[in-house]
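Wait, can you check?
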Amino acid sequence: MRICLVGLFFLNLLEAGEFYDRFEILTANSPTAPRASEWKPGEGLVLEVSGMTWTSDGRLAVTIRKGEVWLIDGTESVSAEDITYQRFAWGLQEPLGILEDGDSFLVAQRTEITRLRDVDGDDVADEYLTAASGWNVSGAYHGYIYGPERDGQ
C-alpha cells in the first residue's frame, strides 16, 4: 500500500511537469510598439484616446488606453501631411487623463498619478516619478482614477 501511494505521488509529479511544459512565454508585437519618428497612424489602427490637453507650445498631448502618451503637432493645419506624431512616454497602465504642469506632465494611470519629465529636450520622457498613489487598486476591472484636474478649475 505504501509503495502504491509513493508511486502515485511520483506519477503526479511527472504529470505536473508535463502540464507546465505545455506553456511557452512569447513576446508579442503590438500595434503600439516603438515606432519611427515619421510614423503616422494607418487606417484601421484604433489608438483609443483616453486623455488630452493642449501644451503651452500649442501641441496636443494625448494619452491612449494602451499606455502611451503622444505629442501631436500641426493639428491646426488643413493638410494631414503637416501633422507630426511623437511618442513621449509608454509603459503606463491605462492612463485616463493628462495635465501639463510646468516642465512636465501629470498623467493619471490606474495605480498612481505619474509625473513625466523630458530632461534632455528630445520630446521623450526621461523621468517617470510617482506624484500620488495609495488609493484602492485591486484586480477589479472597474477600479480607475480619472483626471488629473487643477484645484479650483
Summary: The longest strand covers residues 127-133. The radius of gyration is 23 Å. The chain has a mean pLDDT of 80. The domain at 47-133 is CATH 2.40.10 (Thrombin, subunit H).
